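Regression report. Comparing outputs from two consecutive submissions.

Submission 1:
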Amino acid sequence: MTFLRQKYWNRHMSDELNLHQEHEEVAYEREDLSPRGIFAFLIGLALVGVLIHFTLKGMYGYLETYEKQHQPPLNPLVSQTENDSRKVSNADIARFPQPRLETNESLEINDFRLQEEKKLNSYGWIDQKAGIARIPIDRAMQLLAQRGLPTRLQAGAVPPSPVNMARQAVTRSNTSQQPKTSRKRKEVKQ
């Protein structure tokens, strides 16, 4: 059984290919979905969306007027405020305690980053009484490259102390030709 391939698709392509294969248990849909049905669905969906929009707008408008009409009377000791509490003036913002909501996030984060950069790239005191200062990162890297990283003492090593440093200085400055171990042996023999 040989099938010839057609170069382009057409509506009856399925029929042409299956002319040679007639099976009763195999079935397929003979029509494609019509564009009219797709467009009708999309137009209906748009109309329902517009209807829902205006229904919700009307419902919220009704609920807002209902709420305004059924407000309890204010206590005479309370100062009169604006009717719409959703609008905030600059004076109200200044009275509000810290931390406040951000009004311009990008400007505020840029100011914060600028302050942090100034701290990282300048000299200053962290605790002047304790003698703790802050230096720029570049200078700290130069000092670290010159001095090296601080190291810990190895296990079993004697920590530097005035007594140990004095002993080491004495052994270094010992100009006698006698090795240190021979002195100990002489003392032990006597």
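Submission 2:
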Amino acid sequence: MNLNRIISCTFFLLCVFFVGSEAYGQAYEIIPKPQTQEWGDGVLVLNRNIDIQYKGKNDTISRSIKLFQEQLQQLGIPTTVNKKGKGSIAIRITDGATQNKPLEGYNLTVTTDGIQIAANDNAGVFYGLQSLRQLLPPVRNNDGISLRTVVIEDAPAIHWRGMMLDVSRHFYTKESILHILDLLAQYKMNIFSLALV
């Protein structure tokens, strides 16, 4: 129970510290810091509902989109997936050989027309969605969502990014461990070592 409080308080303090106003002039910080981020002067105003356009048939990416929808639902932001028409967020997979991008890399572009996430693999799409989630305001009001235009290019600097949890010396509930896994995924950690004995 105390672990859940500590994690929740830490997450709340990070949100308060790193996320200022949702207005035009604020450049949000993304954790971990992307390799490059170029902030523009424009503003994208999203409607009350965010449409995600994904025309592919990759089950892993579909699960990542579903998780992203659940995360936004917790913030009070409704989303829909649109496979045919144009959406507020367009997701596409690129060929890594032609783009010279490493695995797990992604490009996140916010323009006044919409949001585009381009990645070379499933993990890149997931990390792009998590970065986009950090750009969104932590509290939703009845107005539209204002995002400052930005171009972000990112890929992991190191392959092994993770945490070890020793449950043989300190007991954690299943819910606590699942919550820790969710937080690790949000911050783009890819390794979780669980010591049982």
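Expected: both submissions complete independently.
Actual: both completed, but the second showed a warning that disappeared on reload.
Relevant detail on submission 2: The first helix runs from residue 2 to 18.
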